[in-house]
Write a structure and sequence with these properties.
alpha/beta, about 30% helix
Length: about 425
């Protein structure tokens, strides 16, 4: 078992059991998903193993649980968190912790960590030669699969680079696309995952407050707003921020999805889209539209805002267990998606979690004809946009929700602009 970062251990530490050489699942839902893709899967619970009810010191130790970090000795790649975890486990005889690492001689911090690891007696450290890094990784992965009797099975990769994939194929492994299986299993969230998604949204909400109350003023550039909120998010727990969207004035209609060096003027409508990986890598994604300066919204701007919010509100209210993506898509405004069968990212919804777009999409372009069932504890970001030749500026709003047992709950709680809805 490889632990690459604290995210995996955070969510799975309570679930460790002695490994039996096969892929094991500890819930019926996991088993149902994974068994579609491989026969080497075992459903462990129920029954609950007798050892579950014993104190840690009373449990028999049949086989150590191996936790291995394989990668660069680089503070930016999580090695610090891995060392913290290994330190916490050093006195627990159930675990065998190893680090297979390649340090970077040109990086002072990497060298310091490398030298420190070589002196440790409680952490097994195997140095990988920089020039032989790729072959060592391939051989390591292959040996682990052999030891557990699955080297001839299909090996699914969900996130990879093509060089690594080809190297594993050359090593004789049967590499297949693991994304469909993984993404289907990730659509329904656990309680812990829901809390992490809420944390990400709360931090982003604080960034929106800073934008509205401090940073947004006539004379600043769109890219200045993006720089400020990106810095804020990274300083407050985000891992990275891939979507850098601030569109103002003429850039809201037609909608320009990224930021420019355009100077924001008094009276401009400003669309801000914050999407990024927050605590433990769980994404937030929601949009607000503000008006720059002290002037009140015009009647036209109020009309555009209402036309954007009202169908979005109706779409959100359509989410409930047993409903389908068709029920939601029917509430979206008609758009070119109806004509071309597309998902243009203007009137749509998408599942969200460890990825910004996590498998399920909702669009009038195809959800009306190919509906999918909505289930409890699924999470979605849902958004609408209104612009076009009739209006000077455009409005975009996005909310994130999770499906409850009776409906749904909005967890992107930063308020809308009430002046536009009066």
């Amino acid at each position: 078992m490889c632990i690459r970062d604290r995210r995996y251990l955070y969510l799975n530490e309570p679930k460790f059991f002695s490994y039996n050489g096969k892929l094991f699942c500890i819930s019926k839902r996991q088993y149902d998903y994974v068994s579609r893709w491989t026969k080497s899967v075992v459903y462990l619970l129920p029954p609950v193993p007798e050892e579950y009810f014993l104190k840690p010191e009373e449990k028999p130790v049949n086989k150590k649980i191996k936790i291995t970090f394989l990668g660069r000795i680089d503070p930016g790649k999580g090695i610090g968190e891995v060392i913290e975890i290994f330190k916490a486990l050093k006195n627990d005889s159930r675990f065998e912790c190893s680090i297979y690492g390649m340090h970077i001689p040109e990086h002072k911090e990497s060298v310091e960590i490398h030298n420190w690891l070589k002196r440790q007696k409680d952490i097994r450290y195997i140095e990988i030669d920089r020039q032989k890094y790729s072959p060592a990784v391939e051989e390591f992965v292959k040996n682990v699969l052999k030891e557990n009797g699955v080297a001839q099975e299909k090996v699914g990769l969900d996130v990879f680079d093509w060089v690594s994939r080809q190297a594993l194929v050359d090593a004789g492994l049967n590499i297949v696309n693991g994304w469909p299986c993984m993404i289907e299993a990730r659509q329904i969230k656990t309680r812990d995952e829901l809390e992490l998604l809420k944390q990400s949204a709360t931090i982003a909400g604080c960034a929106f407050a800073k934008i509205r109350d401090e940073w947004l003023k006539p004379g600043v550039r769109e890219c200045d707003i993006v720089a400020n909120y990106t810095k804020f998010l990274l300083e407050n727990g985000f891992e990275y921020v891939p979507a850098l969207i601030c569109a103002s004035g003429r850039n809201t209609n037609p909608y320009r999805r990224w930021s420019t060096d355009k100077i924001i003027q008094d009276g401009d409508l400003v669309i801000i889209d914050i999407a990024g990986a927050g605590p433990c890598g769980y994404f937030c994604d929601f949009v607000r539209t503000f008006k720059c300066g002290k002037s009140k919204p015009t009647e036209e701007e109020k009309e555009v805002y209402r036309k954007c919010w009202e169908p979005l509100k109706a779409a959100i209210e359509a989410f409930k267990p047993g409903a389908t993506t068709k029920d939601v898509a029917e509430k979206f405004p008609e758009y070119d998606d109806d004509k071309y069968g597309t998902c243009s990212l203007f009137q749509f919804g998408h599942s969200i979690g460890l990825s910004l777009y996590e498998g399920m999409w909702i669009s009038r372009g195809y959800s009306l004809e190919y509906p999918e069932e909505i289930k409890q504890n699924m999470c979605f970001s849902v958004e609408t946009y209104v612009g076009g030749p009739k209006y000077k500026q455009g409005v975009r709003i996005e909310q994130s929700i999770f499906v409850t047992d009776t409906g749904c709950e909005i967890y992107t709680t930063f308020p809308l602009e009430e002046e536009f809805l009066e």
